[in-house]
Amino acid sequence: MVAALELYLDPDATRRIRTLWDALESEGVQSMRSLLGQRHRPHVSLVVAPRLDPVQVAEALTGLVVAAPLRMSFQHAGQFVGRVLWLGPTPTAELLGHHGEVHARLTRAGVSLAEQYAPGRWVPHCTLSMRVPNVLMAAAVRRCLEVLPLEATVVGAAVADHARDIVHPLG
After folding, report:
1. Which residues pair with 49 in a beta bridge?
2. According to the model, what pLDDT value does residue 34 have?
3. Which residue in 9, 32, 92, 95 has a CA-CA distance of 20 to 30 Å to 68?
4. What pLDDT band is residue 54 in, cutting at 50, 70 and 90?
5. 85-120 pLDDT, tens digit each
6. Rounded Cα distance, 171 and 47, in Å
C-alpha cells in the first residue's frame, strides 16, 4: 500500500464521481467506493510514497496553501496498465505549477517520493477503479465519458495512508 498527498474536490464534483462509482458498480466494475469500507473519497494525488510522515510533510509545506482553490476541468477518461480506470483533469499551468512546488519542497525536505509522480512524469487523475475486468473496460470508459466534462474546485488536502488508517488534513 502507498501513502499520498490527496487534493479533495468540491461537494458537487464529489457527488458526481460517487454517482459514477455507483454506475460502474451496477455494471460489475468494482469502483473505489468498494474500498476502505466506503470511506474512500474522490481526489487527485499530488505525490505518493511508500510512507509519508504527516508532520514532516506539513513542516515541508509550511507557508504553502496545499488546498489552493485550484479549478480542475476533467475532460477525459483514461486507463493505466493493470486495468486502472480514471478521469483526468486538463493539466493547466496552475495545476502543474502547484504540483511542482509541492514536489520540490518535499524533495528538499528529504521525503522519498514515487518517481512516477515527479514533475514531467505525473499524470493528474482521479482513480475510479483499480480492477476493471478487460471485457468491461470499453463499457466502463463509455460510462465515464457520459459524465464529462466535470468541473471541480479543490476544497481540501490531506496526507492519507489508508493501510495505516491515517488521514491528516493539511491547510
Report:
1. 3
2. 82
3. 32
4. very high
5. 999 999 999 999 999 999 999 999 999 999 999 999
6. 16
Q: Please answer whether residues 96 and 44 qualify as being in contact, where contact means their C-beta atoms are separated by less than 8 angstroms.
A: no
**C-alpha Rg value of the chain to the nearest Å:** 15
**Parallel, antiparallel, or unpaired for β 84-89 and 150-161?**
unpaired
Pair 52, 111: CB distance under 8 Å: yes
DSSP line for the chain: --EEEEEEEPHHHHHHHHHHHHHHHHTT---GGGGGGGT---EEEEEEES---HHHHHHHTTTS-TT---EEEEEEEEEETTTEEEEEE---HHHHHHHHHHHHHHHHTT----GGGSTTT----EEEES---GGGHHHHHHHHHTT-SEEEEEEEEEEEEGGGTEEEEE-
CB 119 within 8 A of CB 100: yes
Query: Which of 45, 49, 39 has its CA nearest to residue 72?
Result: 45
